[in-house]
Amino acid sequence: MIKMNFHVMTLFPGLIDNAMGESITGRAIKAGHISVNAVNIRDFAGNRSGSVDDYPYGGGAGMVMKAEPVYMCYKHICGQIQERNQGTAEGGKLPVRVVYLTPQGRTFCQKLAEEYAGEEDIIFLCGHYEGIDERVIEEIVTDYVSIGDYVLTGGELPALVMMDAISRLVPGVLNNCISAQTESFSGSLLEYPQYTRPEHWRDRSVPPVLLSGNHRKLAEWYREQSVIRTALMRPDLLENAELTQEERKLADSINNKKN
Ligand code: SAM
């Protein structure tokens, strides 16, 4: 059974389908762990030319996406979800969370990805040009999410970033479910460094503990390296990390050396 259904309202469905169809997400779609339904807002333009934008009231640069095509696209997706759920226990459960990708939103992070991974359906709304008529945003959007403090040309890349991060948390998508649990941000620490064959590369060797086969020592090394790495790269994360006294000392000594 598909565990996560992504729906994307976009002017560029090919961008979404092509990117999600590759690599791990592509395999997850084939295996039925996730589904991606990219719907072209232009199909709901309601005019022959397929035009979905117009000049902003009050003047100013650029064009604004019109409310009605976005609204009709949303209603279409709601109909699809309801139809799929008919006869199930949910009986067409609505409303589904509608995420508007916008630089004005809350910044996306691993915690938010974990929250969304618990949903069955998510609808993403990708803006373009100067954005979307505010009235339809007020009507349908439940969440406002940004992927960082910079402005992109459209919401497709942010939607892809979010879908990628959420997909990895859907059961079955990663072969190795431990990997999502030990990765950076899953706790308050960054992940330890990784090595693969050969054992010696140029004048650098793999840390001997990784070849020891001693699981207790390995676990200690992973933990210590995570503390060191976090202190070096993202000391801000350590404020909320649960560290032993020794680990806190280690982190402080690294920070003092840096300063
Ligand atoms: N005029 C808008 C403003 O200043 O807030 C920016 C519009 S931007 C050029 C066009 C679209 O790209 C937005 O509607 C949004 O969907 C998307 N977008 C741009 N930057 C983004 C970001 N950092 N995070 C999420 N979406 C973004």
Sum up the structure in keywords.
9 helices; binds S-adenosylmethionine; two-stranded antiparallel ribbon; single chain
Give your account of this protein's structure.
This protein is of the alpha/beta class and 259 residues long. 39% of the residues lie in helices and 17% in strands. The strands form 3 sheets. The protein has a 5-stranded parallel β-sheet, sandwiched between helices. It has a two-stranded antiparallel sheet with strand order 3-4. Strands 8-9 form a two-stranded antiparallel sheet. Helix 4 links the parallel strand 5 and strand 6. Helix 8 runs parallel beside helix 9. The mean pLDDT is 94. The structure holds S-adenosylmethionine (SAM). The site of S-adenosylmethionine has 19 residues, from strand 5.
Write the layout of secondary structure elements.
Blueprint: E1 4-10, H1 13-20, H2 23-31, E2 34-40, E3 53-54, E4 64-65, H3 67-85, E5 97-107, H4 110-116, E6 121-126, H5 134-140, E7 143-146, H6 156-167, H7 177-182, E8 200-201, E9 204-205, H8 215-233, H9 245-258
Parallel strand pairs: 1-2, 1-6, 5-6, 5-7
Antiparallel strand pairs: 3-4, 8-9
Helix pairs in contact: 1-6, 3-5, 8-9
The structure holds S-adenosylmethionine (SAM).
